[in-house]
Amino acid sequence: MKKGTIKVSVLYPNEEGKSFDMDYYCTKHVAMVGELLGDAIIGATIEQGLGGAEPGSPASYIAMGNLYFESMESFQNSFGPNAEKIMADLPNYTNIQPVIQISEVMI
What we know:
Elements: E1 6-13, H1 22-37, E2 41-48, E3 61-69, H2 72-79, H3 83-88, E4 99-104
Antiparallel strand pairs: 1-3, 1-4, 2-3
């Protein structure tokens, strides 16, 4: 991604007793988000946590989704009107409250 791109990260903490359906997330949720936000998305990645810093330790996050946008305005204009529908799909794949971070790509 080029410098100045906006990255929206949705991180799902790996907590005891929580569940996450990676198949649903990859095949249904992300497809729905892509349809709703359309051309505003210039890139996306999905990551599955494998482990922590210490050998054999659990990953801090069970999954991460990252969406990339040309500008903050592009993100806000596409996500804002669709936020309720996107968030309403959460119970279909997880019982984890996601952590959301918006960042600017520097390099």
